[in-house]
Amino acid sequence: MTKRIDTKIISGGRNKRWTKNTVNPPVTRASTVVFNNTDEMKHATQNRGDKVMFYGRRGTDTHFALQQAINELDGYAGCALYPCGTAAIAGSLMAFLEAGDHLLMVDTTYEPTRDFCDKVLAKMGVTTTYYDPMLGADIARLVQPNTKVIFTESPGSITMEVQDLPAIVEVARSKDILVMLDNTWASPLLFDAKAHGVDVCIQAATKYIVGHSDVMMGTASTTEELWPQLREQSYLHGYCVSPDDAYLALRGLRTLGVRMRQHETNALEVANWLAARPEVAEVRHPAFESNPGHAEFKRDFNGSNGLFSVVLNCGNRAATNAMLNGMEHFKMGYSWGGFESLMLANHGTPGPRSATQWQADGPLLRLHIGLEDTQDLIEDLEAGFARFHAALQNS
Ligand SMILES: Cc1ncc(COP(=O)(O)O)c(C=O)c1O
């Protein structure tokens, strides 16, 4: 029978092998797994890569339930779990790159991803070229004979450029290059990475999968062909997560659909209100026509979420500090994807850029719109702008 995505979110990984007689799987904590006899031990050893309990680092039934749930949702053959999204990115790159290889990395990637390329991969003899997120088929110009991976992140961190994934995948396919995607913003709900030909799909599950701001976790999903390599490399690096965290991630996942739709509705309402404000020069939200890559967003994505940015046409640090310091509902924090609203200000280039140049006169505010009443959020922002102007006049 057909299972649509909301059904998959609810039923994925809910298999009696993991859940026994309850709705959710028990939290199975283990380092040592004990076997009743040598046959059982042999069976576990031979099948340790295939969801059979062998030793705690390889996972227990709680982890297997989460891995299966994610794969039922994203359609890939296997899913490796990592202690955070950054580890999933590092682990995926390390699994497929070796000394002498070349990597094409999107210029607007999450800053620690860039740092990993510059400070770890470079040391290991992997060279990186940063590319403009708006390059589609033209990315072919940057391909070198030793290019092994094209890494994408769409929309881009903070500035929200949406990439032309199908065009990039087509170039990669013709040259035997792997495409990796940091799909944290969209999650499997808003962007179907597998259907778009992405080879390795990474998520900071810390954000929308967990959804409650209380667990760090990363996932990397891949195809039948690549799974043995990703799985073994992840295992060799010793990546593992606690079963309690796996349980919480699975529990968060079950409400992904309803949360995401409410984040989308709330964020669009607040973004439209902000677009009409005199201080706002530009809204960086993929669903806005003015956002770079809006046509690709409409073509490839199934909707949006709570995270977007606005560029202001005036203001300085004193003004944004006055705004942020008095917010009641918006909290300040470097994350997003939980049920709560968050906000931060950025002055100058939002994260390092080398292939593109950020041009904006005023500061940028990044907002994560949570599940509060939007009228309360708008009133909070309105009072924030009043403090912003008062500080601007005094500075
Ligand atoms: C787009 C994106 N990818 C990856 C990460 C890293 O996730 P984690 O904080 O779990 O390492 C983040 C964190 O903010 C992110 O925003």
From TrEMBL:
GO biological process, one term: L-cysteine catabolic process to pyruvate
GO MF terms, alphabetically ordered: cysteine-S-conjugate beta-lyase activity; pyridoxal phosphate binding
Pfam families the UniProt entry points to: Cys_Met_Meta_PP (PF01053)
Residues the record lists as N6-(pyridoxal phosphate)lysine modifications: 207
Protein name per the record: Cystathionine beta-lyase
Superkingdom field: Bacteria
SUPFAM superfamilies: PLP-dependent transferases (SSF53383)
Reactions that this protein is recorded to catalyse: L,L-cystathionine + H2O = L-homocysteine + pyruvate + NH4(+); an S-substituted L-cysteine + H2O = a thiol + pyruvate + NH4(+)
Cofactor(s) the protein needs: pyridoxal 5'-phosphate
Alphabetically ordered keywords of this record: Lyase, Pyridoxal phosphate
Pathway(s) served: Amino-acid biosynthesis; L-methionine biosynthesis via de novo pathway; L-homocysteine from L-cystathionine: step 1/1
Similarity annotation: Belongs to the trans-sulfuration enzymes family.
Gene3D superfamilies, A to Z: Aspartate Aminotransferase, domain 1 (3.90.1150.10), Type I PLP-dependent aspartate aminotransferase-like (Major domain) (3.40.640.10)
